[in-house]
Automatic annotation (TrEMBL):
Domain S-adenosyl-L-homocysteine hydrolase NAD binding, chain residue ranges per copy: 184-346
Cofactor(s) recorded in Swiss-Prot or TrEMBL: NAD(+)
HAMAP family in UniProt: AdoHcyase
PROSITE patterns: ADOHCYASE_1, ADOHCYASE_2
Cofactor note: Binds 1 NAD(+) per subunit.
Lineage: Bacteria, Bacillati, Actinomycetota, Actinomycetes, Streptosporangiales
Protein name: Adenosylhomocysteinase
């Protein structure tokens, strides 16, 4: 039995799922293959992911391969209620997701999907795996392996491995080359700015945009913000990434120096308190605060709330205005949660086509491969990543060269001199 907001929304959800599917040719090809080969027959999958039209494409692909799927949301503000209804009412998945549900309800939904006794778990931030290893150890017995979709989740998993806590193998789908390139760089870069513009209707040209973090997500954001005419400032703790940003022409400063000058602040670090009380106290009137890291801890929202003498909720959809005692106003988007999913629609479907193709093929591989894997964090096999890239190129009618036998010999022989 699913727990969704409104089953009558299913028709609208189906229309939007089918629209997204048009931009996901790689996943469509895998779905057709799965329908013929049935690599997931009898496999129970529990997933904690953003309930969006793109995720629906993955769920349908796993089902085509023979899996039964139970899905909970990995973020209450990202749930699309019409998609949840369509998956539950039209596509036969068990769905436990409602937009805007509170923390207690969020974890209740995670418990519900775990109670289906999954063979494989798909996670987006490690909350599913964390709950299994803390509150629901009684359900660990059936789980053979899992996949993790986010940088934040992979960091947590590595910490579990270091402490000897992880009880089954997990594949870091997040770390594939195709996922980093498409999802983090191009997806986050575009969808984050889309969310900020939808929430504020602000002109980015001429603004100073401060981006905390210069990983794949931060690079994509910086490139697109510069393309829209913004002055971009990067804050970093990693000297190599900071140097990379400098050599790409961006200003690099500590957050304390950037805080008084920024018009828009965007966090994409995976860490907490990246924007803290001291930074908030230094910001100019009207500064906009947005987070595109996985959890709502990167901006210290509690400190902001304590500093405010008044809070105007929803001055625009997904925009709350905090008034400080000196009259300055700071605007927090999406409650400090993922702005690209809460204030917009997340990554374009063409981006998630790549990430979810990696996910689907990895699930099929894990059905047999899990037996030879230790309880640790594992990479997606290179051949899966390469196959996804080849399928994507083919869908774009792009051809590439192939090595000749002589070239293969040259690359694999140490005896050939210069």
């Amino acid at each position: 039995m699913s727990d969704i907001a409104d089953g009558s929304l299913a028709y609208e959800g189906v229309k939007r799922i089918e629209w997204a599917d048009r931009s996901m040719p790689v996943l469509r090809q895998i779905r057709e293959r799965f329908a013929d080969e049935r690599p997931l027959d009898g496999v129970r999958v529990a997933a904690c992911m953003h309930v969006t039209t793109e995720t629906a494409g993955l769920i349908r692909t796993l089902q085509a391969g023979g899996a039964s799927v139970a899905l909970a949301s990995s973020n209450p503000l990202s749930t699309q209620d019409d998609v949840a209804a369509a998956l539950a009412e039209e596509f036969g998945a068990q769905v436990f997701a409602r937009a805007g549900i509170d923390r207690e309800g969020y974890y209740a939904h995670i418990h519900r999907v775990l109670e289906t006794g999954p063979d494989l778990v798909l996670d987006d931030g490690c909350d599913l795996v964390n709950t299994l290893h803390t509150d629901r150890e009684d359900l660990l017995g059936t789980v053979k392996a899992g996949c993790e979709q986010t940088t934040t989740g992979v960091i947590r998993l590595h910490q579990m491995v270091q402490e000897g806590a992880l009880r089954f193998p997990v594949v870091a789908v997040n770390d594939t080359a195709t996922k980093h390139m498409f999802d983090n760089r191009y997806g986050t870069g575009q969808s984050t700015l889309d969310g900020i513009v939808r929430a504020t209707n602000t002109l980015l040209a001429g603004k100073t945009i401060v981006i905390a973090g210069f990983g794949y997500c931060g690079r994509g954001l910086a490139e697109r913000a510069r393309g829209l005419g913004a002055r971009v400032v990067i804050t970093e703790i990693d000297p190599v990434k900071a140097l990379d940003a400098v050599l790409q022409g961006f200003t690099v400063q500590p957050m304390a120096e950037a805080a008084p000058h920024g018009d828009v602040f965007i966090t994409v670090t995976g860490n907490r308190d990246v924007v803290n009380a001291d930074h908030l106290a230094a910001m100019k009137d009207g500064a906009i605060l947005a987070n595109s890291g996985h959890f709502d801890v990167e901006i210290d929202v509690r400190a902001l709330d304590a500093m405010a003498v008044r809070v105007h909720r929803n001055v625009r959809p997904q925009a709350d205005e905090y008034v400080l005692d000196d009259g300055r106003r700071l605007v927090l988007l999406a409650e400090g949660r993922l702005v690209n999913l809460a204030a917009a629609e997340g990554h374009p479907a063409a981006v998630m086509d790549m990430s979810f193709a990696d996910q689907a093929l990895t699930c099929a591989w894990l059905v047999t491969a899990h037996e030879g894997l230790a309880p640790a964090v594992h990479d997606v096999p290179a051949e899966i990543d390469g196959e996804v890239a080849r399928l994507k190129l083919a869908s774009m009618s792009v051809s590439i060269d192939a090595l000749t036998p002589d070239q293969e010999d040259y690359l694999h022989s140490w005896r050939i001199g210069s």
